[in-house]
Amino acid sequence: MNELLKTNNFLMSHLRHDPLLVLAQTVAFFDPLGMWEEDFEENTIFPDDIDGSLEIALRIMRNNLPDIYFEALAALRQGADYMHINQIICDQMEARGLPIDSIEFMGFGIPLPAYGAEPESTDFYDAHPDMLPIMELFGVVLGDGYYTEIPSKAYTAGQILYLKLRDHANLDYQKIGYLVGWLTNSTQNTLVDIDIETLCSYQPLDWSPDEFEFAVGLLEEADEIMTDAMGGIDILQNNPCLMRALGKNIKRIYRAIEKGKINDSTDLRQIKLRLEWPDTGASVTGAAVAGT
């Protein structure tokens, strides 16, 4: 046996019989990232991880979601490549209520979507032509260029309608409320009320357990609001009587604004304004019922 093999056998023998070294070896096996300081720029410990995104994602999982970390490590030991680990982490994120497309951007914070409507942009109506008849009820006239002017009272009216309708006993009116809230950025859910450009200007949420839980809750609420808002479109399109009632109630609110009954200092939650809505269980010419 040559000297190199003898040396190797000598070291392995002492490694197996030294409790401290055995413990270190066990820790290195089960938690390899615990053996290195964070360094995402160079000397990545995973050869296939060219840009360091895998190491970043694994460190995030190690510190915040250790069960995913250990599942990914188990796959790595079985020869999984970058794309397989990427899929494992993305699938686990989706199972926890936070769908992500790739681990590539995890190092920048928790990735979140932005659903905010942009009624001032003419392009918005190219993507959502069914929104124009609704916005026209607010007095919006489509602009010739990239910009469409939205009167300030439209946002005030949108907030009032949202506050009045979101808790309405009739589910159809709740959905119309969420639709109006989305169109006028009035729902108070950040993801529903702002566009992606604005969202990117905010400090992203980090991966701490508290902020992760907050992000999941925010996204869950946003998805529910958007589902209801899209349902509101169908309701209005299929019931001209409701569309007319919405237009009449917007005019009622506008008159109150023009008379000075509603201004910038008014608490919109406390407004005592009579709005009338038809009974959605009746025909499209159903009798009007008083609203709150």
Short description:
By secondary structure, the protein is mainly α.
**β-strand amount:** under 5%
Measured as a percent range, the helix fraction is 40-55%
Quick one: biggest sheet?
A: 2 strands, antiparallel
**Backbone CA Rg:** 28 Å
The average pLDDT is 84
Q: What count of structural domains? A: 2
- What's the SSE pattern? HHHHHHHHHHHHHEE
Q: Specify the number of helices.
A: 13
Which consecutive residue ranges, at least 5 long each, have pLDDT under 50? 282-290
Strand line-up in the sheet with most strands: 1-2
Structural class: mainly alpha
Separation of the first and last Cα atoms:
93 Å
Overall number of strands: 2
Q: Indicate the overall shape.
A: elongated
SSE map:
Blueprint: H1 3-17, H2 19-30, H3 53-64, H4 66-77, H5 82-95, H6 122-127, H7 132-136, H8 152-165, H9 171-183, H10 190-193, H11 196-200, H12 209-237, H13 240-258, E1 276-278, E2 288-290
Antiparallel strand pairs: 1-2
Helix pairs in contact: 3-4, 4-5, 8-9, 8-13, 9-12
Task: Describe the protein's architecture and organization.
With 292 residues, this protein is mostly helical. It has two domains: 31-108, no CATH class; 122-290, no CATH class. It has helices at 3-17, 19-30, 53-64, 66-77, 82-95, 122-127, 132-136, 152-165, 171-183, 190-193, 196-200, 209-237, 240-258, and strands spanning 276-278, 288-290. The protein has a two-stranded antiparallel ribbon. α8 runs antiparallel to α9, α8 (152-165) packs across α13 (240-258) and α9 (171-183) packs across α12 (209-237). The model is unreliable at 282-290 (pLDDT under 50).
